[in-house]
Amino acid sequence: MEEYKKLFNTIIEFKKLSPWKWMSNGDLLCVEHPRTKQKGYCCVMGEGGEIFGLALYLDQEGLRWLLDRMEDIPIDTYSHYAQDYIAVTFGNANELDKEGKELIQSLGLQFKGKLAYPLLSRLSPGSISRFISEEEAEFLNIALEQVMQIAPKVKEDSDYLFPIDDKVLVLKEEGEDNQKKWVENWIETEKLLTPGVTDISIFSKQLPLLKKFQVNNSLTWAADMYFIPEPVVDKKGDTPFFPLTIILVDLGTEMILSFKASNFAEYKIEVQKTFIEAVDLIKRIPGKIVTIRPELFFALAPFQKALGIEMVQVGHIPAVENIKKEFLSGFKGFRGKHKK
Q1: Could you tell me which of 61, 127, 125, 51 has the C-alpha nearest to residue 88?
Q2: What mean pLDDT, rounded, does the chain reach?
Q3: What span, in angstroms and rounded, lies between the C-alpha atoms of 210 and 280?
Q4: Would you kindly state where each structural domain of the chain is located, as residue ranges?
Q5: Can you tell me whether residue 130 is helix, strand or coil?
Q6: Is the pLDDT assigned to residue 337 strictly greater than 60?
Q7: Which CATH superfamily is domain 201-328 in?
C-alpha cells in the first residue's frame, strides 16, 4: 500500500505541473529502475488535448514502439496490440475501474472536477489492460519524479531532449548508499536496441533435419505475425489474451506454407516451429525471407546463420497484407491501418 500512496502523491504534483503544456510525445527520455535496472521510456501525453498523463514504455520493445511512432509509421493491428507500458492518465469518476476506486477510497483521497481522477493501467503485448501492481506503481512513481525534474529544462530549451547525435537521455541512479544521486547519460539508440538472446533449444534439436534439405535461392518466403483482435482463454478462469498469428507465405505462388496461433510470450519458439514445419512440408529451404517485423529477425537469426538464408526487412508485403486483411475482416476489433 505504501508504494500506491507514494505514487498518488507524485501524481498530484505531476498534474499540478502539467508538463504536457510544453512537452510533446516526441520528447523521449529513459528512466532506469535503481533496483531492477529495467529501463522505461517516458511518453508525456497531452499535446493533442485529448489524453493527459504519462506512459512508461518498457524495455527494448517499448523503445522500438515509440521510435516507430516518432517516424510516423502507421499503427497496424500488430503494433496496436504489441504495446507494453505502465500508465497514468486523467479521467472522470465513471472511468475508474473497481481496483482504482477502492484504492482511492482506502487512501482517503478526493478528486473534484473534469479529468481529475488518476486512471492507472498496465498493458502488456497481447493482453487486456489491467490495474497496476504495487511493484509497477513503484516504477511509475520513479518515472514521474524524474520527468518532473527534466520538464523545467525542456520548458527552458525545447530542444533539450533532441541532441545532434542519435542518442536518448537515460536517467539512472549512481553512487554508494546515502550518496546516491540521479545522473544524466546520453546513450546511442543502437546500444539500447541490442537484440536479446534467442532460445535455440528447438533450433538445436531440428538442425540435423534441416541440413538434409538444400537451400533454393529461387525461393523467397515472407514471414509476418499479427494479433487476432478478439480475446480468448486457454481454460476457464484464465486471463483472456489476444492470440498472435504467425504466418509464412511463398511469394512465388502466394501459398500459405504455415499458419500458427500463439501466446505472445512464446512467439520466438513458435516462429522457429513454424519455419521448421514449412521446410519439412516443402522439403526445401528458401534462399531469402522477407519480413516487416524486426522481432522475426531475432527469432529466426539462428537459422539465418546456420543455413545461409538471406533476411531482408521491407516496409510492405502486398501478398501477406491481402491474406491478413481477408482473414481479419470478419473480426469486430480489426483496426486496419491508420496513423496515430
Answers
A1: 51
A2: 91
A3: 8
A4: 2-192, 201-328
A5: strand
A6: no
A7: Ribonuclease H-like superfamily/Ribonuclease H (3.30.420.10)
